[in-house]
Hints:
- The protein is an all-alpha fold and 69 residues long.
- The chain is built from two helices and no strands.
- The N and C termini lie close together (11 Å).
Amino acid sequence: MGxxxxxxxxxLSMVRDYVFEATDILGNASDTAEQVDxxxxxxxxxxxxxxxxxxxxxxxxxKYKTKRG
Length: 69
């Protein structure tokens, strides 16, 4: 199951900034784009949607929903 991890606002901002840049870079590299797409569909996208909730960049991850099962 999941667990709760608590971050300060500054920590969350730094993580969001880093993740936003990293997913863009990885998604644009021809040899990793397919893997990033697969990871986004298999849980990374829903995790990022939760991380960005209420922040700039949230809409980029809106299509990813948490999969149960």
